[in-house]
């Protein structure tokens, strides 16, 4: 099992609140506890690993490894395929430490897990609360922007689910409203930058790309889904192919005579046979008759 031990990984990939308050360095005994958790996790001893990570959080609420331990606990519950258990655990941290940053961070992470479990309405409500908390923090602009981005993404998911049932346009309007707040209130945020790269069908003026381009997948590392964004300056045949590190084909997408524009598609971590791909490094190949580019993505189960 490949595990990203970098406790800043979720900030790098843009999946967590930005502009986080500075945490103190972890004492040696806390580092040892975290290392024990990693070892147990790599052996798939997820319950024991959770216990070790929990000790990191309880004994060092404001140190840098507490946030890493929270992400690691998420991975362990994913390994156990226990989404309800993870939500309950994150909510317990929020209830235990309502005035600590780790308690709020757990609440923010729980919104994402609610969305992944299919409870989209509750996820939106929770994210809206997180926006208010971020906005009340003088260093919370980046976090507020990402929470608004997440809300917009969920409304887009709802629009797809309700397509043809009369509610899709309402959800899309709410998604656009959330995105509009990002561009108006937080135009310099990473979330605004990510948003500007997405294909926006409702923009009154569409500026076509001037060159072929394959953007970095987002999020990365990811579990279970990552978004692949690419640009076409002209009509072209397109092939997106994903290979494992040994060069074996895992998944592919092809379309002939695709119009010029900016596009995004999602890979849900399944191979061409509909089975879960293993944790590891994957190569995303974007090719047309005139251009080819490759990006790396890391899948963490």
What does this structure look like?
The model is unreliable at 1-23 and 201-206 (pLDDT under 50). Helices cover 47% and strands 18% of the residues. It has a 4-stranded antiparallel beta sheet, with no helix packed on it. A 3-stranded antiparallel beta sheet has the order 1-2-5, with no helix packed on it. The protein is globular. It has helices at residues 9-12, 28-42, 46-59, 64-79, 83-96, 101-116, 120-135, 141-161, 168-185, 190-197; strands at 213-214, 226-232, 236-244, 249-258, 261-267, 280-288, 291-299. The longest helix has 21 residues, at 141-161. The protein has 2 domains: 9-191, Alpha Horseshoe (Serine Threonine Protein Phosphatase 5, Tetratricopeptide repeat); 213-299, Immunoglobulin-like (Sandwich), CATH 2.60.40. It has 10 helices and 7 strands.
